[in-house]
């Protein structure tokens, strides 16, 4: 039995190396620029499918409201095209997170099912809670809530929530030995 397991493991290991599918590096770079909200406001089910469509020329770079004008500019720089205003009918919204009013929550679990990043925890007929660090502000939890106990709060940028938008470049070049 153990010999069969080792043999099968070896065959699977060989097959994973032999038939490996390489990811498109351009898709990875585009996906890294996108805000990873997985909100679907661009018309695609998530940031990765949108990045794939951009790289194939099937989608425009100005369809991501959470990324805003800054995201469009960064995508334009990467792809060597002119930046465009945000797509028609789309507007940039500031970074926000969902908050549940515990006095109104009935524990229906509809918001949990709608959340693309599993930032909502709770059980049926129990109050639910948002994990603020995981919430992307996509607002997909708002429509299914039957009692409208969820609202969005803008995240104020301060010293605790501020992040670098571009890769950190060292001030002094690293010397190679």
TrEMBL record:
One Pfam family cited in the UniProt record for this chain: Fer4_21
Predominant cellular place of this UniProt entry's protein: membrane
Domain named 4Fe-4S: residues: 22-81
Region feature (Hydrophobic): 1-16
Keywords associated with the record: 4Fe-4S, Cell inner membrane, Cell membrane, Electron transport, Iron, Iron-sulfur, Membrane, Metal-binding, Repeat, Translocase, Transport
GO CC field: plasma membrane
One of the GO biological process terms: electron transport chain
Compartments, record wording: Cell inner membrane
Binding site for [4Fe-4S] cluster 2: 105, 108, 111, 145
Domain of life, per lineage: Bacteria
Subunit description: The complex is composed of six subunits: RnfA, RnfB, RnfC, RnfD, RnfE and RnfG.
Its biological purpose: Part of a membrane-bound complex that couples electron transfer with translocation of ions across the membrane.
Name of the protein this chain belongs to: Ion-translocating oxidoreductase complex subunit B
Lineage: Bacteria, Pseudomonadati, Pseudomonadota, Betaproteobacteria, Nitrosomonadales
């Amino acid at each position: 039995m153990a010999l069969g397991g080792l043999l099968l493991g070896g065959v699977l290991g060989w097959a994973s190396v032999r038939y490996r599918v390489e990811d498109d590096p351009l898709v990875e770079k585009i996906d890294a620029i996108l805000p990873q909200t997985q909100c679907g406001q661009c018309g695609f089910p998530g940031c990765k499918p949108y990045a794939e469509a951009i790289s194939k020329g099937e989608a425009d770079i100005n369809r991501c409201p959470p990324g805003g004008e800054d995201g469009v500019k960064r995508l334009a720089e990467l792809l060597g095209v002119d930046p465009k205003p945000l797509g028609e009918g789309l507007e940039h919204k500031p970074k926000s997170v969902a908050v549940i009013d515990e006095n109104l929550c009935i524990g229906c679990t509809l918001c949990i099912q709608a959340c693309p990043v599993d930032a909502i925890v709770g059980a049926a007929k129990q109050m639910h809670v948002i994990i603020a660090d995981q919430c992307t502000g996509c607002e997909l939890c708002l429509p299914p809530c039957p009692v409208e106990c969820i609202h969005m709060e803008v995240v104020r940028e301060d010293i605790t929530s501020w992040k670098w938008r571009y890769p950190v470049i060292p001030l002094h070049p690293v010397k190679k030995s």
